[in-house]
User: Which sequence fits this backbone?
């Protein structure tokens, strides 16, 4: 198992290129099951979750090639079974269920894993697919689905679930008639998925709003598509500039999709300049804690909660961070406390009191964004920090230690 060893205290300076978005690329890859002909994707990040998805697609009968950020994919001899060993490591893998049902009329997909940040059921995905005519049963931890063609339906969602919205959009593209999703999630990655499917001939409108309409078409054709840049990776580097008192310029930064995060960081005292081609984050004075609550988009993203908490740990004053999406997403708190942070947990809220300086220690990463938070804290801490179990980080950050090293961080990967 690898760990990252960080000697903290260096202000980061220089340019970082933002990679393609993991959370946009994953559903787009799985939606490619629906397409006849070649899908050509660019700006695909080189991540463990992408490798896992491509392996899954190959096991499902697709031909996939991945080189220099480009994927070429053909779904030719589809098979209906997605095995547990692959699906358990990655939440998004459940998104193959709808496309397989659409194309084959049956599918067997293990219940998904992913970051251990809550129970994360898929009941809304299944309820929506049932409304479109699918029938499900659970057998030995596998979801077994069958259908005799999917039909358009009116589907009100109890909560704007990101994966559920993506799943139902995919399934509806080739269903008979029109589907309307109400209370749909509005995340930019959903918009990217819909744009990709439309480029393949789908008829989706309203994506990016809470009512999405999908008019089913007979078939989808191949297309070339550039995956959007990763707003969470970009946000993590904006925090890296703030937490080290540095000055970073982000290339291909999705500024619009990051508005809420940028506003919060600005409230804390981080300064910004430029636009998406070159977006500069720098610090010219002390930073202050703020209060924040995570919410569905356009609210503050839960995937940035841990990173901004690390920043608050070394800012002035106190602030309350409330997690409004997942019931168990504070696993980084006790590790931050090992670095000298002052945080008190109370239910879904964490009260953070800033300290003058964090102090290096050995910490354990529990999930993807918790890992990023601990790396950020280690960059700010005095002395040496070892972040163990960074396989989580490799799921979602492309060459993070290389990118950080290039802007001056003293960071290296070692085997434990
Ligand atoms: C691969 C990917 O894109 N993952 C993102 C996606 O996860 P994911 O798609 O899993 O997140 P959801 O929006 O579906 O989950 C939000 C909340 O709804 C609950 N829920 C969801 C579906 C369901 O059928 N039943 C149910 O109860 C979940 O347990 C959670 O409490 O959106 C999350 C929220 O922005 C992000 O943190 C993840 O990074
Ligand atoms: C929670 C995340 O990923 P997943 O949904 O794949 O577990 C994430 O990207 O922060």
Assistant:
């Amino acid at each position: 198992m690898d760990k990252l060893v960080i000697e903290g205290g260096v202000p980061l300076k220089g340019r970082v290129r933002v990679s393609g978005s993991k959370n946009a690329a994953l559903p787009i890859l799985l939606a490619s099951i629906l397409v006849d002909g070649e899908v050509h994707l660019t700006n695909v990040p080189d991540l463990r979750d992408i490798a896992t998805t491509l392996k899954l697609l190959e096991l499902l009968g697709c031909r996939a090639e991945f080189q220099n950020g480009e994927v070429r994919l053909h779904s030719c001899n589809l098979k209906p079974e997605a095995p547990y060993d692959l699906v358990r490591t990655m939440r998004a893998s459940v998104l193959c269920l709808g496309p397989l049902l659409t194309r084959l009329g049956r599918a067997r997909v293990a219940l998904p894993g992913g970051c251990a940040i809550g129970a994360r059921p898929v009941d809304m995905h299944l309820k929506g697919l049932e409304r479109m005519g699918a029938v499900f049963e659970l057998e030995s931890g596998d979801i077994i689905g069958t259908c005799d063609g999917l039909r358009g339906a009116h589907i009100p969602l109890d909560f704007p679930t990101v994966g559920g919205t993506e799943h139902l959009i995919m399934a509806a593209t080739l269903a008979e008639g029109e589907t309307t999703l109400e209370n749909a999630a509005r995340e930019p990655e959903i918009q990217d998925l819909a744009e990709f499917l439309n480029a393949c001939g789908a008829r989706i409108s309203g994506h990016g709003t809470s009512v999405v309409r999908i008019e089913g078409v007979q078939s989808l054709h191949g297309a070339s598509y550039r995956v959007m840049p990763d707003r969470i990776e970009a946000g993590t580097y904006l925090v890296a500039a703030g937490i080290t008192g540095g000055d970073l310029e982000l290339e291909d930064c999705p500024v619009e999709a990051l508005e809420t995060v940028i506003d919060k960081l600005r409230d804390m005292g981080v300064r910004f300049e430029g636009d998406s081609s070159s977006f500069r984050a720098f610090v010219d004075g002390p930073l202050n804690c703020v209060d924040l609550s995570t919410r569905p988009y356009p609210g503050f993203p839960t995937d940035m909660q841990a990173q901004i908490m690390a920043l608050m740990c070394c800012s002035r004053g106190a602030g309350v961070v409330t997690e409004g999406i997942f019931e168990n997403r504070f696993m980084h708190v006790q590790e931050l406390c090992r670095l000298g942070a002052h945080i008190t947990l109370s239910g879904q809220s964490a009260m953070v009191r800033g300290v003058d300086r964090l102090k290096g220690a050995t910490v354990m990463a529990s999930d993807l964004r918790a890992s990023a938070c601990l790396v950020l804290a280690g960059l700010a801490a005095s002395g040496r920090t070892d972040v163990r179990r960074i396989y989580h980080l490799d799921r979602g950050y492309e060459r993070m230690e290389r990118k950080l090293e290039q802007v001056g961080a003293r960071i290296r990967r070692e085997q434990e």
Summary: The chain has two domains: 2-19+229-415, 22-226.
